[in-house]
Amino acid sequence: MSVLRGIRSWFAVAALLILPSTVLAEVSVQVDSHGNFKRYFYLTGGRGRSSFVWRQVRPNLSPELVLNPLGDTYGDGPPVIRTSPVTGYPWAVWPKNFGNIQQLAYSTWDGKRWTDPILVNPGMPLVYSDQTPDLVFDNLGKPFLVWARAEQTAKIYFTTLIKGQWSPGFVLSDPTVDSRAPSITLNGKAAVVTFQTPGGSVTKVYESAILFNSAASLMDNPIPPLDAPPPTAPGGGGGPGLPNRI
Q1: How do beta strands 155-162 and 165-166 pair?
Q2: CB within 8 A of 96, min separation 6: which ones?
Q3: Among 203, 207, 178, which residue's Cα sits nearest to residue 191?
Q4: How far apart are the C-alpha atoms of 12 and 70, rounded to whole Å?
Q5: How far apart are CA 78 and CA 69, in angstroms?
Q6: Distance of CA 19 to the CA centre of its chain
Q7: Which of 93, 27, 92, 38 is nearest to 61 (CA)?
Q8: Which of 17, 84, 219, 221 is the most exposed place for a label (fewest CB within 10 A)?
Q9: Do the beta carbons of residue 151 and residue 171 sit within 8 Å?
């Protein structure tokens, strides 16, 4: 029985390493005897209401190998983890808790340790929580990040990293329709964003270059303002600055 339990545990860990996941978990890495990165671990603990986020699952780990060595002290939300195609190292994005309001933070494995967490949108008022992030990379390693902001009418936002800074987030969903739980994939030159609304699942497809350039244009001139998104593009489309949906 113990052998079978061990086999089931091994397959559970293997599945977590292979499949994209947003489960509640310890986030850590394994290195070889020379300190070189081998893989990351995303290990669950508990089930249902007893499941926990960030608490260390494996014993006797060096603190620099664990993304959050303080555990679940602050009540942060579950992360999304993706591997950069350029470095081969993992990136983690998660809702970081500030007095019951969550803002997205990210960290990357730099080859020796996890970098200090940095807010994706620093300076945002602590009014609405950012939730359920999803992340994907293009072949050049550019990150495409989407998430839901739990405003009075929840909206789906997008950002990317430009010259070491995340661009101001802008709305992809119809601002008049409650929209949550986004996912994003890249299919050739297309960025496919899917999210949930009261009417069911919605999928929108954009040229990834249009998304990136729209984000870049906001770096020097952040219009529209983040608290007042403009109407969606003609045809019930994608949101500000994105008339060229494909």
Answers
A1: antiparallel
A2: 74, 76, 77, 102, 103, 104, 105, 117, 119
A3: 207
A4: 25
A5: 15
A6: 15
A7: 27
A8: 221
A9: no
DSSP classification of residue 4:
H
Structure tokens at 187: 């299919």
pLDDT exceeds 60 at position 2 = no
Share of the chain above pLDDT 70, in %: 72
Mean pLDDT for 85-105 is 95
Residues with Cβ within 8 Å of residue 239, at least 6 apart in sequence: 158, 170, 171, 172, 173, 175, 229, 232, 233
CA distance 48 to 67: 23
**Residue type (1 letter), 233:** A
Which tokens in the block code for residue 42? 């995303």
Six-digit token string for 166: 């995340």
Q: Which of 74-83, 119-128, 157-166 has the lowest mean pLDDT?
A: 74-83
For the whole model, what pTM was predicted? 0.79
Q: What are 126-166's pLDDT values in tens digits?
A: 999 999 999 999 999 999 999 999 999 999 999 999 999 99
